[in-house]
Each structure stands twice: as C-alpha cells, then as structure tokens.
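hey can u check if this looks right to u? its 193 residues, i copy pasted from the old doc so theres a chance i mangled smth
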Amino acid sequence: MQLSEPGLRIHEFCKLIAIVGTSVLLISQAIANDDFAVNSIRAVKFEDQLRLDAEINYQLNDEIKEALGNGIAMTFQVEVQIKFLRDWIWDKTIASVTHVHILKYHALSKQYIWRNLNSGVDDTFPDLDSALLHQGRIAAMPIANTAGLHQEGHYIVRLRARLLTNELPLPLRMKSYFFAKWRLSTGWHEWPL
C-alpha cells in the first residue's frame, strides 16, 4: 500500500512520538534514586547460623512524606541473598531472605506505626525520623545455615532495600510508573563473605 505525502508525514510523526515516549520512559526507569543508602553490612557466624547486621539510611522525598502524612501506608522490602560465585556459569543463590515492613501515620494519636510483617512486631514512634532510623537498623537477622556454605570458593552477600510501589493505592501506583521519585531503592550492594 502506497501512502500519500501527508499520510507519510503523519506516519513518520507517529513513529517519532512512539520512539521519544519509549525513550523517556526507559530513561526515567533507569535513573537511580540515592534516597536509600546502605551504610554498613556485616555477616556474623553464630552457632550454626549466619546472621546479618546492617544499617540502611532511608530518606523519603517530600511527596512520599506528604502521602504518608495523609494516611497512605508505605511498604518497604529488604532482600538479602548469599551467592556462590562461579567462573563459567551464572552465580548460584545459596540463600535468600526477604523482610517486609509497613510504615503508616496514625492521625488520631499523631504517631508513626511501624510493623514487621515477617515477625508481626509493631512499634510506635513520635516522629518520622525515629521510625526510619529504627527501620534502618538490622540486627542479627538470620540469613542462612552455615551447613549450606560447605563448598570451597567465593561467596558474596547482596542486600537491597526498596519501597514496594505495587502496594501503593492505584493512583499512586500509576504515578510510580512514570516518576522516578516514587521508585526508591538502594540497588543491590554486594560484600564478600
């Protein structure tokens, strides 16, 4: 089918719009947010377990603080993996642990409520900074049995903390697809074991 000159221009214009739109979306998704940072991590052997101590600095931007202050609960996830490094094929995941926390503001009591969904433990805090400081301290979290680390070779511990945007209400979840300020993450941080 042969397109006329005006039809050809419209077709080319639509292709250009599609390419630009896709590029903008991909670039916005690739921009890393430095609002969360892993300050320290240490794996310690205790009896037959490997336990993790870590410190994560959670800095929330104004838009997320406003949503939190308006009663929107924020769900955070901390993922820890132990990987066995191999030369010729993909690294093998020896252990993987995920902890999920919910942080919300209770307007009546003017308190921040922090809940660990793995253990069911709740804590309350008078301000956001103390709640985030508490959330960022990981102490003696079991991550693996030492019996699983029997192979000779190199192991690494990987840690990532992030805001789970798929747990946000639908309007904010849609916003998180297009605006990087809603996709807060430390990215993967690796340390030798």
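The radius of gyration is 22 Å.
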